[in-house]
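User: Hi! I have a protein structure encoded as tokens and I'd like to know what sequence might fold into it. I'm fairly new to this, so please keep things simple.
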């Protein structure tokens, strides 16, 4: 396999660190370009050529004619397809296992991430707090956590009892449950143990600190990011 030559464009958000975790878990060498969201760097013409949707994360694969990939789920699958010959995170030769991993990856992309994103919006960023909406967001998050908790019964990880892309994509979001309005997950003991288990993985922990120290453990950075998002919605909604 050709030595990878990847540039990661990112920031330390829950979505951004998904890709640095995958790169670290796969042992792929990469360069990091921190996108200064506060300065609206994501809207610069040079970045829009990489991701026309002006979001992080994104990558450029310099070994493949500077091929850009955006959207975290697409990036994750791309990296595994091209740079995971040992099938560490995504099975290639077992169609059923491969399908199971991708199913859970899509569960995160279509369920967990949007649910927690909505909760962040209504709990953290909008000035008007609407109890019905906030409670409904928390209820949906707990429902999704219940699905994961049941699926983790008697297992250490979601698929094949080993750490895969299914775990790598959900973990960065779920570990931020308190930020999304679900203070405690004691009612989901299997899920809680799963988080604690992944907490001990050195490569994952290294990925959480790219390109800035773990934002969920850095109050100053978390506040900075929160203020950025509040400003974004204030501008968009003319509040």
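Assistant: Happy to help. Inverse folding works backwards from shape to sequence: for each of the 239 positions I chose a residue that suits the local structure. Here it is:
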């Amino acid at each position: 396999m050709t030595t990878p030559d990847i540039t990661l464009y990112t920031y330390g958000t829950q979505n951004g660190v998904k890709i640095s975790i995958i790169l670290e878990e796969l042992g792929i060498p990469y360069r990091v370009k921190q996108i200064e969201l506060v300065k609206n760097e994501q809207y610069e013409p040079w970045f829009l050529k990489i991701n026309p949707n002006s979001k992080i994360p994104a990558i450029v694969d310099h070994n493949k004619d500077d091929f850009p990939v955006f959207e975290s789920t697409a990036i994750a699958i791309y990296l595994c397809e091209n740079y995971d010959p040992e099938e560490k995170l995504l099975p290639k030769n077992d169609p059923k296992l491969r399908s199971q991993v991708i199913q859970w990856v899509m569960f995160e992309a279509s369920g967990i991430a949007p649910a927690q994103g909505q909760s962040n919006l209504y709990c953290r960023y909008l000035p008007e707090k609407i109890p019905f909406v906030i409670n409904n967001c928390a209820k949906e998050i707990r429902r999704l956590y219940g699905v994961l908790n049941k699926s983790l019964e008697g297992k250490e990880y979601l698929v094949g009892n080993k750490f895969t892309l299914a775990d790598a994509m959900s973990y960065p979001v779920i570990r931020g449950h308190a930020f999304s309005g679900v203070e405690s997950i004691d009612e989901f003991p299997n899920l809680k143990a799963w988080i604690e288990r992944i907490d001990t993985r050195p490569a994952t922990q290294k990925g959480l600190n790219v390109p800035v120290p773990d934002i969920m453990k850095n109050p100053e950075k978390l506040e900075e990011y929160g203020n950025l998002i509040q400003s974004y919605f204030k501008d968009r909604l003319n509040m």
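A useful reference point when you look it over: The beta strands are 6-10, 30-34, 58-61, 67-70. Feel free to ask if any position seems puzzling.
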